[in-house]
Amino acid sequence: MNIGQLLKHEEGKTLEFKRDLSSPKNFLKTLVAFANTAGGQVVIGVEDKTRLPVGFAHPLDEEERLCSLIADSVSPRLVPNVEMITVEDKTLLIVEVFLSGSRPHWLKAEGPKSGVYVRLGSTNRQADRELIAELRRSVEGVAFDELPMPGLTVDDLDLGALKTLFRDQHDVSENELLTLRLLKNEQGRLVPTKGAVLLFGKEREKHFPDAWMQCGRFIGRDKADIFDHIELQDHLPQAVDSIMLFLRKHAMRGADFSEIRRKDVWSIPLGILREAVINALVHADYSQRGAPIRIAFFDDRIEIENPGILLPGMTIDDMRQGVSKIRNHVIARIFRELNLIEQWGSGIPRIIREAEELGLPELQIVEIGMRFRLTVTLAEKISVQKTTEQVTEQVTEQVRRILNSLRNEPLSARDAMQFLGLRHRPTFIYDYLQPAMDAGLVEMTQPESPKSPTQKYRLTAKGKAALVENDQS
Known about the structure:
This protein has 473 residues and is α+β, with helices and mostly antiparallel strands. It has 4 domains: 3-127, 2-Layer Sandwich (Methyltransferase, Cobalt-precorrin-4 Transmethylase, Domain 2), CATH 3.30.950; 144-207, no CATH class; 213-377, Heat Shock Protein 90 (2-Layer Sandwich); 386-472, Orthogonal Bundle (Arc Repressor Mutant, subunit A). Helices cover 41% and strands 18% of the residues. It has helices at residues 3-8, 24-37, 59-73, 111-114, 129-140, 159-166, 174-179, 194-200, 204-207, 236-253, 257-263, 270-283, 316-320, 329-337, 347-357, 388-405, 413-420, 425-438, 461-472, and strands spanning 15-18, 40-44, 74-75, 81-87, 90-97, 106-107, 117-120, 123-126, 183-186, 189-192, 213-218, 226-232, 293-297, 301-307, 364-368, 371-377, 442-444, 457-459. A hairpin with a 2-residue loop joins strand 15 and strand 16 (371-377). The longest helix is centred in the middle third of the chain and has 18 residues, at 236-253. The termini are far apart.
């Protein structure tokens, strides 16, 4: 790309413009961030906003100062390419940094714990401990989900769920589990990998408390008013169907039932959304804390968001072109074996193509905060207000049933599901439990710890009165 074309581009993940080096710290942060993330270029000697060249009176002196500044301020040693280019009789400096094999780099003045930066859009962000560890692993070629969990054994895995999902295509022998990287030999013992626990751990929430899925249906175009929500703790492969069930449920609520039954028409692009959900589950950074996978359904769009920025060396343009880097090797392998992933790197290009074929607005793909978000804009607005009368009768019957299950004593979610004869946790949560709680008929026994493994549910005074009234009627 020639300098004229470069000056027409907006600042972004791999490009920044600076007038001069009067603020060297910001310049150094950018170089560190480029080296740690996906490489990039800094063009010095142009106005940030107008892109008009201003140049340097003594470019050779400025180049020498720049190289000394980098050598004295960045660790490990960083040696960028520095070029002098003349535009309109003005000499500019172009500093190019490539993705470094010695990452993470940091500012010496801030140290290796606080001085590591990564590039997000056109800004530099300080990396936390988990992201610094991810940068190191990416150099070593080790995935987070391949790491062993020495304190656990194969008994901590739900092998029954694994066998059910594979429908006997794979056995659950030690050799097979080793081949699938669900087990690893650690100091003479076979122990589960982090990926195995994330996929099939009996107590995943204990070891990875933030590895869960949050789905919400909001009224309107922002998060001010929530209509429905669920929190899923399913095994990751099963979570795909649970999330899609939630989306289909609200797509049907916003459409005409007879039309859906007669024409099999959906008001949301199910194929695109399923692919995006799978992408989020496979590529989430499960080492991050306080960051579940989130699916937000608004009247005009659906946002699918997972923790973790793109892996080093990757850009959003790369993704659009089908370039793929796998963050979680174990999880990706299992999803591939289950035919949830068709072909490496094909997901994003395929859903972009399908969106074009359906006449949808262009998909929005961004890194925001330390998260990755894909937004699907809907062809037509879907309002939830029209759903109240449609579902009242069904909800009332489901509420009656859950009130009856809690008649004698508080129950855990599992015990209540068993009483009701339900096997699908999302159905229980958002079709039975949540409506009863929203109506003030049922409450948690430990409201201060909503995700406690010993959490139970009980009738409120209002719920007991409703049950008595129901018995009398």
